[in-house]
Design brief:
Strand order of the largest sheet: 2-1-4-5-6-7
Order of helices and strands: EEEHEEEEEHHHHEHHEEHHEHEEE
Bound molecules: adenosine-5'-triphosphate, magnesium ion
Number of helices: 10
Largest sheet: 6 strands, antiparallel
CATH topology of the largest domain: Rossmann fold
Shape: globular
CATH superfamily of the largest domain: P-loop containing nucleotide triphosphate hydrolases
Strand content: 15-25%
Radius of gyration: 23 Å
Distance between the termini: 32 Å
Helix content: 25-40%
Number of domains: 2
Structural class: alpha/beta
């Protein structure tokens, strides 16, 4: 499954553009401030109905516009599909699949997406919460049926916390916590099993990709659960042992909501001891390790890589370009196409962005693989 076309209407600095994408590597080039990251964000928004950049969705609306719209064309095994997401402040987002409003809970035909933005380095160097959320998204991508475990755990956690508040205020007896300890431990054990399985699955690929991308010492991914036990009964005992402390502090201090995933390099934590370049390579290795595992299951994600080449040395750029070009679809932004090995070869789609307009080079029709003619609706 891959994207063939994207249309942006009143999205960020784009009034109205249409871009055709090739099935392999696509390069988006342009000066600082031209709109490269905006284009990636537009693709991400079209696929997920969320921003990969901001929690304030209004920012995506072009200044002065009232509705933003992203339309994507997806080539799937059963033919072409059209996805559309509309954003109008104060309204629910409107998602259409092949022209019809998408029903809640129905998954549209769309590729998985993996995104590298410079500020995603926080995944390596930031707090554990970001790594937990990322790991849980991987679990959902690997085993869609297990995606609900995280939400079930979160609900049990918030119920337990609410009850702790009531016990603390003298409004409920401590014994009522037994039931929530059992519930939390049950979902917690499932969540931990899924996380452990996902880390186990991608960790050899992470080590291989980290080495391939030039981390000098062995890279290692390690699940770091908070609980010592890994079964529901054991977790419940650990919760019970901490109950009085929890009541004193007013919340649940122990459990898988405190888990982490350690990224190591030569046995040292990259979070605290890695250089900026090593953290960048580790993040790329993680995203590509995930791609490896998903590709082996027939669902390689679309890779959106923003400004990934700028801080890599030339040897690492070559290795990354080879990896990006090896399989699946990707969109890579750069200020300078000479930073993306192979971009000037003629069979890579290059989209040049300037002040909210786009021009495609070479025109898709002239590329080696035959494709439909481009229609760039660039406007100043
Ligand atoms: N909602 C909006 N409406 C209009 N213009 C916007 C909006 N949001 C951002 N912009 C403009 O978009 C431009 C930035 O685009 P973007 O972040 O995509 O640049 P870029 O090409 O990625 O640059 P860099 O190489 O510096 O990362 C800025 O000029 C900014 O003012
Ligand atoms: Mg940018």
């Amino acid at each position: 499954m891959h994207l063939t076309r994207i249309r942006l209407r009143d999205f960020r600095n784009y009034e109205r553009v249409e871009v055709e994408l090739g099935p392999g590597l696509n390069v988006v080039a342009g000066a600082n401030g031209a709109g490269k990251t905006n284009l990636l964000e537009g693709i991400y928004f079209g696929l997920t109905a969320r921003s990969c950049r901001t929690s304030n969705e209004r920012e995506m609306l072009r200044l002065g516009a009232e509705v933003a719209r992203v339309e994507l064309e997806v080539a799937a095994e059963d033919g072409m599909h059209a996805l559309e997401v509309g954003l109008e402040p104060g309204q629910d987002k409107r998602i259409r699949v092949d022209g019809a409003l998408a029903a809640r809970g129905v998954d549209p035909p769309r590729p998985l997406v993996s995104v590298f933005l410079p500020d995603r380095l926080d995944l390596v160097k930031g707090a554990p919460a970001g790594r937990r959320a990322h790991l849980d998204r991987l679990v959902a991508a690997l085993w869609p049926a297990r995606g609900s475990t995280r939400a079930a755990y979160a609900r049990a956690l918030s119920q337990r916390n609410a009850l702790i508040g009531r016990v603390r205020g003298g409004l409920a007896g401590e014994g009522l916590l037994d039931q929530w300890d059992t519930e939390l431990a049950r979902h917690g054990a499932e969540l931990m099993a899924d996380r452990a399985a996902a880390v186990e699955l991608i960790s050899p690929a992470f080590t291989a990709r980290a080495g391939g991308l030039g981390l000098p010492e062995p890279g290692e991914l390690r699940y770091a659960p908070r609980c010592k036990a890994d079964d529901a009964e054991g977790i419940r005992d650990e919760l019970a042992a901490r109950r009085s402390g929890d009541i004193e502090r007013g919340f649940t201090t122990h459990g898988p909501h405190r888990d982490d995933v350690a990224l190591l390099h030569g046995g040292r934590l990259l979070r605290t001891l890695g250089s900026q370049g090593q953290q960048r390579v580790a993040l790329l290795a993680l995203l590509f390790a995930e791609r490896d595992v998903l590709a082996a299951r027939g669902t390689p994600p679309l890779m959106l890589l923003d400004d990934v080449m700028s801080e890599l040395d030339s040897a690492r750029r070559e290795r990354l370009a080879a990896l990006v070009g090896s399989e699946g679809q990707s969109v890579v932004t750069t200020t300078d196409t000479s930073h993306v090995p192979g971009a000037d070869s003629g069979d890579v789609a290059v989209i040049v962005v300037a002040a909210g307009t786009t021009v495609q080079h070479p025109p898709p029709a002239a590329r080696k693989a035959p494709r439909r003619a481009a229609q760039s609706e660039a406007r100043a």
